[in-house]
Write a structure and sequence with these properties.
about 220 residues
Length: about 220
């Protein structure tokens, strides 16, 4: 299972130099704590640190110290008078990256940044249950065998627990013959929130969709 250590950060523009110093100190502590986990690290946020400005090397030096790669290469805040790269995505595992994008946003000054990871979907572990198999069960054969059991043995014991044990043993011997216990793998993951009513609605939806597709082809 892939475990990712995420840090979501925002650095205020007021008192910028002091805020960057606090950010670097706190981030260093967090990264030092996270490194022993040996997991991919991603740092996302608005750092108000213009990375297209070559004179601003604080974050560059920080990335070099922790072997982090800054993935965003284009401005994330564009105005009539400026274009700055202040929203970053830093990672320790660039090999997991498929793509990065910067998308314009209509609700904020900063554009949206996102990253696409090459993560394989983990297959869930199979679920097994123990149940009786009634595949070859025949009621008449079962009733015949159960009628031939020497139930009188149950009355031979003075202790009620011994009598119960004898009854269960005799009964289960016949039951195991006609409906043996099997270990079965559950094909689908259990979904307790899917009620019978929802299942019927799903069937109805699929039925009407098939009808719609069929009639649509006929009209064509």
């Amino acid at each position: 299972m892939l475990v990712i250590v995420d840090l979501f950060l925002y650095v205020q523009s007021t008192g910028l130099h002091q805020q960057h110093s606090i950010f670097l100190t706190q981030s260093c502590d967090a990264l030092i704590s996270a490194m022993p986990m040996d997991k991919p690290i991603f740092i996302l946020g608005d750092l108000n640190c213009h990375l297209l400005n070559l004179s601003d090397q604080a974050l560059v030096n920080f990335c070099t110290s922790f072997n982090l790669t800054q993935l965003i290469r284009q401005p994330t805040r564009v105005t009539d008078s400026s274009a700055t790269l202040i929203d970053v995505i830093l990672t320790s595992h660039e090999n997991l990256i498929i793509d990065t994008k910067v998308k314009p946003s209509s609700i904020r000054d900063n554009n949206l940044t996102y990253v696409v990871l090459n993560v394989k979907r983990q297959r869930p572990k199979p679920i097994y249950i123990t149940t009786r198999s009634f595949k070859n069960y025949q009621q008449n054969a079962f009733l015949r065998d159960i009628s031939m059991v020497p139930w009188c043995i149950v009355d031979c014991f003075d202790d009620i627990d011994d009598s119960l044990h004898a009854f269960n043993t005799l009964f289960n011997e016949v039951l195991d013959k006609h409906a043996p216990i099997r270990k079965v793998k559950i094909r689908g993951r259990p979904s307790p929130y899917i009620t019978d009513e929802i299942r019927e609605l799903i069937k109805s939806r699929d039925r009407w969709r098939n009808i719609a597709r069929r009639t649509s082809k006929e009209r064509c």
